[in-house]
Every structure is written in structure tokens, then in C-alpha cells.
Amino acid sequence: MRVRTTVFLVAWMALLGSGASFSAQGPAKPPAKVTPEEQRETAKLLGQFRLAKKDPAKRAQVVEAAVKAGPACAAAIHAVIGKEMQPQLAHYSGKFSQQASALAKKKIGSVNLEEVARLRQAVIDLQKQPELTKEMIVKTGDPAMKKLEEIFVVDRAAVLEESPGLKSERDQLQGPGKLWEQCAAVLYEQLPDDENKPKEPPSFEKYLQGEESLAAGLAAPMSPQTRQVLAANAQLVQRLDPEEARAVLALNLTRNLLGLNALIIDLKLCAAARDHSSDMQRLNFFAHESPVPGKKTPWDRAKLFGSSASGENIMMGVRDGKAANLGWFHSPGHHKNMLGNHNRVGMGLVGAHFTELLGR
After folding, report:
1. CB-based contacts of 61-70 (< 8 A; 24+ apart in sequence)
2. Cα 79 to Cα 50: distance, rounded to the nearest angstrom
3. Edge-to-edge, what's the strand order for the sheet holding 344-350?
4. C-alpha triplet 141, 248, 331: angle, nearest 5°
């Protein structure tokens, strides 16, 4: 089995490391009502923030002032920080991916193929259980997946240890990342205190660790067919919300560890999935069966958008694509869907509602 860094891996990492993906962890919209005084204060602080680009201490003061000024100011500074960090995060992600690939080449020299087959089968056999439970997935699936990751996926901490330059670049991201986090915390507090609200405010460190884990997964051995599908997907992800793209990638990396085929992005299924997420948010329901005429079932919705479906997963209260994939893995019905016999996938995120449509 051979591991190599290719253009499509860098394309994926550039997307995953983008400020757009990063900023998606906060609410999508600033407060609806902004007074003229708040507008003036926001404009003043934005100007000060931009002028202080080479003065971290001054920028920290501006962010503190923006946080005190309220959600409108925090949202404006939040957006600027995310945009500014795009090239830094993309560069870091590309270098991390290259370093992970170099380590992976060394790692796979002594793979026990019989052990790999046994571990994969243990997870796949869970789908045959008529009364599959979360406890069964945790007891059997989690240890097997952890072991497969130990065999094939390089540890993100090991990647950093191998490259002092990479660690230094990561440290440089912490400053603007913490400023982003301060603003994001203000926006988080504006979310309605209901089941849609994430349990914890956005964390720069946790998000960066998630990016690194995905990069490490991309360095794992893949079949030529899987590489071809991921290369095709890399050309389509710019048309997805970054968190939708992260969810698709996390799904395919999970399937790759289990020796299953990767799923190609179906943009029509993405549109259908987004539409269902939008309906669930707008009409305040959470179900596979929709009350909207003509959209009752996943099959109806896929057909309405010019495609076909063979399964559907939904989730509420999460905006992190990687976390959504992990949640589905531990949910019996969703688990069977995501590891089933499919060839296409559509992902739709609206607000805090995820819909994943699968197709053959």
C-alpha cells in the first residue's frame, strides 16, 4: 500500500483550513437590530482593528472593546478575523498534510493484513444486528475503529513533533485564533437557549485539532478508486458550505478505514438535503417525514431535485461536520446508513440542522 501527497489533498486541506470553514462555527448572522450608535461604534472599531494589523496588543484591545460594545461589533470583527486567517490556515493545513503523508509512509511498512480484515469485519458485522444499539457500537465499533486508526492514521501530535517549523507556524495561529474565539463567544451567547444551541461555545484549539485529524486521515492508505472519488469531490467542495464539505470528508475517511468505497458528492442531493434542513429549521420539526406537501419522504425530496436517494441521516444542534459524522456513527439507524451500500452523498447544513442524503 502506497501513500502519496497529491494536488487534490492540498485542495481539500486548503478548503478545510479556510477562514470560511473556521468562521462557520459561530452564528451565521449578526444581530438583526443595530442602532445608528452601534453602527458608528462598529465602523470605528473595524477601522482601528484593520490599522493595527502589525500590532497584536492593540488588536487585543480593540477586540475587548468590541466585545463590550455588543454583538454587532463582535460579529463584524469576527468576520474580519476569519477572512484574514484564510491564507494562514490554508498554508498551515497544506504543510501539515505533507508532513502527515511523510510519516504515514513509514508507518505502514509492517501492517498485519489479517488483523486489519478482522477489525474491519467486526465493525461491518454490526450492520447485521437486527437490534443494534449505541452500546453495541461503543463496545465493538469504537475499539475496532481506534485500532484501525492506530494502524493506518498518523497521530497529529506526532506530526507536530516531527516538524519544529510546523509547531512554530501553529503557535502563530493562536493569537488571531484566540481573538476570533472571544468574538465567537459573544455570538454564541446570542443563540436561543434551546436544543439547537451547541453545548459549548466555539473553541479555536478544538477546531484546529479537528482539522489536523482530518489531514492525518487523508494521509492514510487509499485504493486508486477512493483517490479518484476524493479528487472528483475536491473539485466540487467549493460549491458546498465548508462544514458540509468537512462532513463528507469525515464520512469518506471513516469508510476508507473500513475498506468501503468512497461516496462522490451529488450536488442535486446536496440541494435536496439543504432544503430539508431549511424546512426543519423554519417549521420547527425534526424528522425524516416532512409535513411539506410533495416532500414527505427522503425519496420524494431527492426526486424533486432531480436525483434519487437510498437513505437519509439527520442531526440537530451541531454545526461541526466532523462531529456530525461521529454522532451518526454512534446512532444505530444512522450508523447502518452511513456504512451502507451507496455511491453518492449529498450534505445540507442550515442553521444547526444537518441532513445527509445517500444514493446508489
Report:
1. 63/179, 63/182, 63/183, 64/182, 66/42, 66/183, 67/182, 67/183, 67/186, 69/38, 69/41, 69/42, 69/45, 70/31, 70/38, 70/186
2. 12
3. 264-265, 344-350, 353-359, 311-316
4. 35
> How many whole angstroms separate alpha carbon 343 and alpha carbon 351?
27
In angstroms, rounded to a whole number, what is the distance separating the alpha carbons of residues 111 and 183?
Answer: 46
Q: Can you say whether residue 154 is alpha, beta or left, with left for phi > 0 and alpha for psi between -120 and 50 degrees?
A: beta
Residue 92: what residue type? Y
Say how far residue 253 (Cα) sits from the centre of its chain. Answer: 12
pLDDT for position 268: 97
Instruction: Give residue 67's pLDDT.
Output: 95
In the chain, the N- to C-terminal Cα span, in Å, equals: 28
CB 357 within 8 A of CB 312: yes
Distance, C-alpha 296 to centroid of its chain: 28
Q: Inter-axis angle of helices 164-189 and 204-218, to 10 degrees?
A: 130
Query: What is the per-residue pLDDT for 196?
Result: 57
Contacts 24+ apart (CB under 8 A), 168-171: 169/91, 169/92, 169/95, 170/92, 170/208
137's grid cell: 457500537
Cell, residue 270: 446536496
- Kindly report the pTM of this predicted structure: 0.69
CA distances from residue 352 to 20, 76, 182, 278, 316 in whole angstroms, order as listed: 16, 21, 21, 10, 6
For the chain of 360 residues, list the mean pLDDT of each consecutive stretch of 10.
32 39 41 79 96 96 95 92 89 89 81 93 95 96 95 89 91 95 90 71 87 84 91 88 91 96 97 97 94 97 97 91 93 96 97 94
> Rounded to an integer, what distance in angstroms lies between the CA atom of residue 83 and that of residue 80?
5
Element holding 218 (H helix, E strand): helix 204-218
